[in-house]
Amino acid sequence: MRELYAAALWAAVSVLVIAGAAQADSRMVYDTPHGELVVEYRDQDHIRFRLPEGNFLLITGGEGYALNRDDGGWMAVSARQIRAMVQANGKGEQVRLTPLGEHETVAGIRGERFRVEVGDDWTNEWRDDGVVVLSDDARVRASGQALKRMAELFGNVDDAAAFSDVSGVEISRYGLVVTDDMRLSSVSGERLGDHTFQLPPNVRHQDLPTPAAGSVGGQQREAGDRGWLARQMEGAQSEAQSEVERETQREIRRGVRDSVRGVFGR
Known about the structure:
This protein has 266 residues and is an alpha+beta fold. It has helices at 2-22, 79-88, 141-154, 228-236, 243-260, and strands at residues 26-32, 35-43, 46-50, 56-60, 63-70, 73-78, 94-106, 109-120, 125-135, 166-167, 175-178, 183-188, 204-205. The strands form 2 sheets. It has an 8-stranded mixed beta sheet.
C-alpha cells in the first residue's frame, strides 16, 4: 500500500510538472528604429504583441484582434476582418532562407545567420533581401511560433508570411534574433499575468468599412517599406463612411505595420 501511494503521488507531481512546463510563458523584447517591440507568448491561443507606437496585436482564446486606444478607450478590430482584406489580394512572393554557416550571439542567445531571398520558385527567379539571425534556442523559439500564428489568424501580412510559408529551413524550430530593423535586447521566462492575454475592459469592437466591389484586388502594389496591409487600408479609407472609421483604419494600419516591420528585412 505504501508503494502504491508513493507511485500515485509521484504520478500526480509529474502531471503538475508537465502541465506547468506546458504553460511556461515567454517575453521577448526587440529594439527597433521606432521603439521597443515586445512579444509575449503563453501558447498558440494566447499571444500579445506590444507595438512601438503603443498599440497591440492580441490573440486570446484562439481569436485575434488589433487594438488601438483613443480618448474614449480601447477599440478592437477582429483578425477575421483583417484576414479577409489580406486574402482579397491573393498570394504574395515566396521566401527562402539559406544558412551562411556563420553564428552571432545577441542578448545571450546564440543564433545562426541566414541569407533571405524573395521571389518565385516556379520561375526560379529570386532576389537577395538581406540577412537575418535565427536561433533554435528554446528561450526565443516562441517568437517564431507567435509570428506564424499571427500569420494564420491575421493573414499572410507581408513579413509575417515568412514564418508560415518559407523554404530551405524548418522555420517552426527557430525564433527571431536579428533583422535589418529588429534586434533582440532581452528575453525572460517569467510568469505573465492572465490579464496579459485578455481583451482590455470596456473595449469597443469596430468594423472595418467595406471597400467598393473590385477595389481591393485591383489596387497596385507600391514600392517602399510599408506593408501590403498598410497600403490596402490607406486605399480603403476612400470608402470610409465617417471620420471615426477613417481614424480607426489609420490606427490599425500603424499597429499592424509596426508589428511586422523589418522582419526578414522586407
